[in-house]
Amino acid sequence: MATDQWTIADILAWTQGHFENLRPGSPRLDAELLLAFVLDCPRLDLYLRADQPLNEKERGAYRELIQQRAAGCPIAYLTGEKEFWSLSLEVNKYTLIPRPDTETLVENTVEQIRNRQNKHSESQCLIAELGTGTAAIPLALCAELMNLHIIAVDCSADILEVAIRNLQRHESLLSPRDNRIELVKSNLFSRINPPAKLDFIVSNPPYIPSGNISKLQVDVAQYEPHTALDGGPDGLSFYRYLLDTAPGLLAPEGEMLLEIGFDQRTQLSLLLKDFPAWKTSAFLPDMQGNDRVWKLGLSELPLSWKLTCSIDNRQLI
Ligand SMILES: C[S@@+](CC[C@H](N)C(=O)[O-])C[C@H]1O[C@@H](n2cnc3c(N)ncnc32)[C@H](O)[C@@H]1O
């Protein structure tokens, strides 16, 4: 068949086969996402319009994307979009692509904040986030909760421009819900100036050991920004900083929730011994049973844990 007669169904079938060899992760989905992007339609429409041939311009644009994907470029950088917590977010080459893994951090953080708000329903909950990227985490929190003031920090102006546009996209999650996200360009927390002690610190920090980055799959190693990945020689630099700095920023019953690498629990438990300000520490698993969230508290039994205990009617201590 001449390629100028190729229909949507033909092209999807061909691309799927092409990607099965070169980029085997999710070949059909990748093909559909790219074609839906070129045709500017929802993915479902590809099936409703399966017999429609593509015109020359559409074929050219699609061919270009296929080549870039075949070379390893992540789909999200090609379409400029990624869905996180059911929110469509802009991404670009400066930002990490938000991962489904990080939804485990969001789930646990929502639960802790909710526990606090059940106790202090009137007061605004004050949160700082280190390394906001696309603002995926604060926007997801605002989608679930009200009355939040989140100070979200990143070190790059290029990244914060993307974050600003994502906040504009999802404005309905902000002032109409009494939520505020304050974006601050800052190296670590050096430039934040919270109006009071923080109730929570949340972060998905860079945590890949520097020497391991080049060994990651090409989509990540060659395309994603290394400042978003590089956790220093042992991958723990940001945890070390947060364990040291956060106690000075948090309220006495404040808590910190951090995403961690699936294999970092043992190292982090050892590291914690150097930071006696922390009185509680728990590693929380994702759906696969991997420890992916580290929850730390400054009081013997943080407020939210007490509430959990009384709700579950269990004795923890
Ligand atoms: C693993 S990414 C997380 C991005 C986003 N929160 C998410 O979960 O998708 C880490 C983020 O930390 C930022 N970062 C790296 N070093 C930083 C520093 N010294 N100060 C502030 N942010 C930093 C990076 O630019 C990146 O956006």
Identify the notable features of this structure and list them briefly.
12 helices; 2 domains; two-stranded antiparallel sheet; Rossmann fold; disordered C terminus; seven-stranded mixed beta sheet; globular; binds S-adenosylmethionine; alpha/beta; 317 residues; single chain; Helicase, Ruva Protein, domain 3
Question: How would you describe what is shown here?
Answer:
The chain contains twelve helices and nine strands. The protein has 317 residues and is an alpha/beta fold. The protein folds into two domains: 3-71, Orthogonal Bundle (Helicase, Ruva Protein, domain 3), CATH 1.10.8; 102-312, 3-Layer(aba) Sandwich (Rossmann fold). The strands form two sheets. Strands 5-4-3-6-7-9-8 form a seven-stranded mixed β-sheet, sandwiched between helices. It has a two-stranded antiparallel sheet with strand order 1-2. Strand 4 (148-154), helix 8 and strand 5 form a beta-alpha-beta unit. Helix 1 crosses helix 2, helix 2 runs antiparallel to helix 4 and helix 6 crosses helix 12 (303-312). The protein is globular, with a radius of gyration of 22 Å. Residues 309-317 have low confidence and may be disordered. Residues 96, 98, 102, 130-133, 136-137, 153-156, 159, 187-188, 204-206, 227-228 line the site of S-adenosylmethionine (SAM). S-adenosylmethionine binds next to helix 7 and strand 4.
